[in-house]
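Take a look at the protein record below and flag anything odd:
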Amino acid sequence: MFSKKFYSYFILCIMLNFSFAFAAQLNFFTNENDWLQATTGFSIRESIEMNAANVALADGVTGPVQVDDNLGNPLNFQKANTGLSWNFEITSLQAGSELIFEERFPNSIAVGDSSTGFNDDEFTVDFSGNNLLAFGISIVNNDASSASQPDFFQIFDENGTLLGEISGTQIPISPGNVAIFLGVVSDTSIGSIAFLENALENVDIRKLQFSGEVGTVPEPGTFWLLGMVVAFGCFWKRP
């Protein structure tokens, strides 16, 4: 017959294993109004457009920003300058490329300059600050995403672990200056996103939107673990 101490350790180990395996819950959106509706319960809801005035707020960028200006790479936006609740950094993933204040599609940032051979317009956006639980991005000039040549919209937690993604035909086409929206709502804090494309596109970033809560919130598995500990303590009786 095992002792009560053995059973208590055994149950605690089970609870720890379940808490580590607790999967994040993600909801993806391609309709901006639906995403906005899904974020109404959060205390912070903010956005920033990539117009000349806002782009000039990035570290190392001197205004006024002109059409076709090279902005460097990566591009860091500090919340002290933007007035937002998060710092964020936009990075073009193609080696040697820079972010460009767009000429063809007004008020947007081009990921690389296609005229100089930088056509691989993959990028990341990293966040720091408060607890980011929802993110939305409007992009233009994303003219191809299919099952055979898919784009990927990926979401990562603060430790760089992939939480989920959508790809291929789940991502709308945005020919020319027509913007599309990609959004996500998560029950786990978002640390970064990535947009990975199929070959030879010219994706431009027009608007970013953020939603969440002040401070940090424990992971869902932590809530589950604490609840189980409390429940275990309620029925356990000392001999």
Q: What stands out?
A: The longest strand covers residues 131-140.
